[in-house]
TrEMBL record, chains A, B:
<dbReference type="InterPro" id="IPR017850">
    <property type="entry name" value="Alkaline_phosphatase_core_sf"/>
</dbReference>
<comment type="similarity">
    <text>Belongs to the BPG-independent phosphoglycerate mutase family. A-PGAM subfamily.</text>
</comment>
<dbReference type="Pfam" id="PF10143">
    <property type="entry name" value="PhosphMutase"/>
</dbReference>
<dbReference type="InterPro" id="IPR006124">
    <property type="entry name" value="Metalloenzyme"/>
</dbReference>
<comment type="function">
    <text>Catalyzes the interconversion of 2-phosphoglycerate and 3-phosphoglycerate.</text>
</comment>
<dbReference type="GO" id="GO:0004619">
    <property type="term" value="F:phosphoglycerate mutase activity"/>
</dbReference>
<comment type="pathway">
    <text>Carbohydrate degradation.</text>
</comment>
<keyword id="KW-0324">Glycolysis</keyword>
<feature type="domain" description="Metalloenzyme">
    <location>
        <begin position="17"/>
        <end position="393"/>
    </location>
</feature>
<dbReference type="Pfam" id="PF01676">
    <property type="entry name" value="Metalloenzyme"/>
</dbReference>
<dbReference type="GO" id="GO:0006096">
    <property type="term" value="P:glycolytic process"/>
</dbReference>
<dbReference type="GO" id="GO:0046872">
    <property type="term" value="F:metal ion binding"/>
</dbReference>
<protein>
    <submittedName>
        <fullName>Phosphoglycerate mutase</fullName>
    </submittedName>
</protein>
<dbReference type="InterPro" id="IPR042253">
    <property type="entry name" value="Pglycerate_mutase_ApgM_sf"/>
</dbReference>
<dbReference type="InterPro" id="IPR004456">
    <property type="entry name" value="Pglycerate_mutase_ApgM"/>
</dbReference>
């Protein structure tokens, strides 16, 4: 039996309260001068005490060696086995995007909906050779990120397909994502990327008859984009791939019987939370203390809370080791406070690691501590990247954390007699 | 999405250099007198120092409890998920065979090619009862290995199928393997082994029409072998099973974008390496020092090197605990030398364990240390069967080592944004 179906069948409801406290990009690597990681450096007595009473371990987000973006990282953490839900790469890209342009403006609160058609894109260089146009550079000479952002803004202003909304998500260098919203969009479209230079761009093709109208729309987008960008020196066309429609994915309530709320200050994380059916609570500011306040106020109304701290990842992305350490330290008393609110189960974890020495996400196991009154704790002295691996949880797939938490919350029946 | 497809999609190329130093049969078990394993006994200061700076753990070759032969052991180590590549048992047997007879002679350099038809065999005893011939012993009274070898040589001399080459691989006791090479061979053949004694042998049957000619050829081989062996007292027929054609499997370059070279002195390992598309470098002798010299000379020419040390396994197969310890010790300074060559990633590992006290391969986790500048190391004081399990790698599937190494070499893009 598929695991997810088994779990669904075993679910029971009760009055228990579960919290996932998520430090974005939580895990790090040793600082070259001290040999200590971010968590080994941080002075976090409350978190350390929590870890000593918890079952600690490391979460592997998507199998050995895979570095997840925020979309795949969070979906795993929420107990979604990505290999069993057909989430096209374009959808994962949009889920993880920080900004979005619409009509030439940066807009807020755009969240992917079932039926949206999402795709990844490269800006590329099209060159006219005789009477043929060929892709001379699939990455438009890896144009600088601000350049790429300007072109995304331009596209979002000029692209126009009657009856459809077009959203453009800037990425790093030549990368971006694009989302089409409107009636009758379906996936099953081939990539428009020829995968090599010196050949003409490939039109998108429908893999089945129902997708033909969607294919025509995407080809229209490509044709328009090529006209709009005609005068750009490098980024004068787009190559689209990973095109797919956002599926209706089951909510956390449908899968695991939990009414869930998200407490996050950045749009991307609110969007991912809504995708899995969470209510997004109003925090009212960007302050962590206000996130904790929102948690306290909504305590009675939900079974499961996801509280997201963004800044650990933010500092790590700019190689600011001390900045990241500081976020852990400033959150330590807030975390202590939530441990006193009466939760039955608390997980302290992350969506992926972002070591400050790398300045980017990584593939390393995510330091995690799971506490309840029935947890098998022990083995660790503190909460750190290395120390948790001595704990009783061991190495687990990220997607296993939620089932473990639900078990600790006594929300599963026995399997068989 | 299938994991291997996801990895393939994430691959990027760069200038990094990766080494897999493979001690065949690396892991052992405690000596009954000292209570210490082979690696705990060995004096290997350079390897211990390496382990202290590395991410250590244990590799499980094919799931809990499975003892792999050399073929499956190496393929997992090279990142091939065997459950996703249809490698018939006969092909795996041939890949792991040490010797091969052709035309009555031991020959060198025979390597399995796509389209070869490979099969496992038992010598068996056929008895005439009235007008019926029945299998009276499916294992020919487990004839001694030298006897079996003699019969393999005989078969290889006498078997003759026009237009096809026949290769016979001696095994232990009644076991052998056989390979047919020639046009139009396809798999999809039933076993010829009736699985019980007292019944007539079963002819091989084609499972689909395209396999009928191959079935007829294998039945012809069985009939000829039974005539050739008519005067043998015990091994007077053959039972063939696990029959299948060697598929074209993707190369390491196709799967992971790495140009790979193998440094090995024994034919079997060269064969497995060529199967996955590695270049096999000329070592010029059986000396480990010359293997290291070959590595040094080819350093600039490849992305990935597989360096194989056979003798650890060889000594363990003859229960020579001290002999195996001695190989680790004599390789320690050579290993130190390779750590100074400028590799970005080095894995010290094995294809399986061969505890000298067992005298055979085993199912135990393979002691492994993975080093790079970005590895999360720590937790171990030395490199040994038990100590590595305290490291940050934990227990992993063998097939996960290459993805981990490629991640450390920064050869994967992020999954999703």
């Amino acid at each position: 039996m598929e695991r997810i179906k088994l779990l669904q069948e075993l679910v029971i409801k009760n009055q228990s309260k579960i919290l996932f406290w998520v430090f974005d990009g939580i895990g790090g690597l040793p600082h070259p001068e001290t040999g200590k990681t971010e968590l080994e450096t941080a002075n976090i007595p409350a978190i350390d005490a929590f870890a000593r009473s918890a079952s600690c371990g490391g979460l592997v987000p998507h199998g050995a060696g895979v570095t997840p973006g925020s979309g795949p990282g969070h979906l795993s953490l929420f107990g979604y086995p990505l290999d069993q839900f057909d989430l096209p790469r374009g959808v994962l890209e949009v889920l993880g995007a920080e900004d979005v342009f619409h009509g030439g403006e940066l807009v807020q609160g755009v969240e992917i909906q079932a039926g949206d058609l999402a795709m990844r894109g490269n800006f590329a260089t099209l060159e006219h050779r005789g009477d043929k146009a060929v892709i001379s550079d699939r990455r438009a000479n890896k144009i600088a990120t601000p350049e790429s952002r300007r072109v995304c803004e331009l596209l979002s202003r000029e692209l126009s397909v009657e009856g459809y909304e077009v959203y453009v998500y800037p990425g790093k260098e030549h990368r971006f994502a694009l989302l089409l919203r409107g009636p009758g969009l379906v996936g099953g479209l081939s990539d428009a990327d020829p995968q090599k230079s010196g050949v003409p761009p490939k039109p998108v093709e429908a893999e089945h008859p129902e997708a033909e109208r969607s294919a025509a729309l995407v080809n229209e987008i490509i044709a328009q984009a090529t006209r709009i960008l005609a005068d750009e020196p490098e980024a004068n066309t787009v190559l689209l791939r990973g095109i797919g429609a956002a599926p209706k994915i089951p909510t956390l309530e449908e899968l695991y019987g939990i009414k869930a709320a998200a407490i996050a200050t950045y749009p991307m994380y609110k969007g991912i939370a809504r995708l899995v059916g969470m209510d997004v609570l109003d925090v009212g500011s960007m302050e962590h203390a206000d996130e904790v306040k929102a948690l306290e106020e909504a305590f009675d109304d939900y079974d499961f809370f996801y509280l997201h701290i963004k800044e650990t990842d933010g500092y790590a992305h700019v190689f600011d080791f001390d900045g990241k350490v500081g976020v852990f330290e400033s959150c330590d008393p807030l975390f202590k406070k939530v441990t006193e609110m009466g939760f039955d189960v608390i997980a302290l974890t992350g969506d992926h690691c972002t070591p400050a020495v790398l300045g980017d996400h990584s593939w390393h196991p995510i330091p995690t501590a799971l506490w309840s009154k029935t947890v098998l704790g022990g083995g660790v002295e503190a909460f750190s990247e290395r120390e948790v691996l001595r704990g009783t949880m061991g190495l687990r797939a990220s997607r296993d954390l939620l089932p473990l938490a639900l078990a600790e919350a006594r929300r599963f029946n026995k399997f068989g007699a």
